[in-house]
Structure formats: structure tokens, C-alpha cells
């Protein structure tokens, strides 16, 4: 659950929610939004801000706000989808920085498409739809380990770097790595789904879809 304290988050990425007029509603809607990492409510003007990135916190008597990410334990038995997505995004951007690629941002629409895709794949036998607007995707599948962190699949994909020929690129064996660092990509969507057999978790599906940007 989002924390609440006097002051407001600091960050360059925020969305002003003019239709949210109460402090509690501002906090609650941020907590329910998987891409909202912090909230701030300006008391005098009744303006709600939702932050997609939180870089710090400023004290102020005229605001209430807080982070919605710090309250999530880093590795609980099963990570919340919000935490999983944040870990995956952070790992992408860690690697992209090495290659001078612009940091990615999570996109709500891409998240929804990715989640729908992942759930259909996890349904065994359900053919996922063809999303013509998405031009790249990475898929990770694993049996049994439902405690998997969001950063782990990204690390596995990035390990293809050792096979990448920078003079004569061959994407047949290094496509996952190339998609992680692709400079034209601006936004990222992440989906995760579980399949089960008689109530026992048997596999995890993660689907990452990219907006190429160019």
C-alpha cells in the first residue's frame, strides 16, 4: 500500500489528475495503478499528481504524498506484478546505459497487451492474438520457480552479448540481447502469468513487448 506523509515526491515524470479531488482518492488510485510509483496532493488547490518515477521526497506543509514502491518487499514469496515490472525495467535501463541507449519507460497500453498475451500463452493451447502494433517481443518461460525476480530474465537475455558479432550482426542467436539495447525503443510493456496443474504452480510466463520507435 502507498505510504502517506507530509510533502510530495520529486521526479520529472508525472501525470496531473484534475478529476481526483480528495487526498485519499489520489493515494488509492495510485496504489491501484501498476505504473504509479508515487503520489502527491496539493491541499489548497485539490490537485492530485501521480508520478511514474520517484527520485526523492520534498517536505512541504501544503502537500501530502508518498511512494507506492518502497512498501513492497524486494523479494517476497511471490512478487507483486508492480514490483516485478519495476525490477525488469530497472535492469533494462542498467544495461541500456552501458550501450548509450535512452532509458525506457513503462507504457500502460503495452503493459495491458503484454499481460493479455502472457495469460493466453500460460493457458496452454490458447493461441495468443496477433498484435500488429507491436514490433518486437521477448518471451521467457520457466518451470516451477514462481519466486523469479523481474531482473532475472533480462539478465539471461543480455548474456547473449558474448555471442554478438558487432561487425556482422546475426540476430538469429542474439535477438533477445539486441532488443534490450535497441536505440529506437522508447517504451516497454511487461506481462507475467502463471499456469497451474491441480493447484500447483508449474510454470511462469513473462512476455516483454517493445515499441520500436523507429
Automatic annotation (TrEMBL):
Pfam short name (any one): CAP
Superkingdom classification of source: Eukaryota
Listed Gene3D superfamilies: CAP (3.40.33.10)
Stored SUPFAM superfamilies: PR-1-like
Domain called SCP: residue spans: 83-213
Protein name listed in UniProt: SCP domain-containing protein
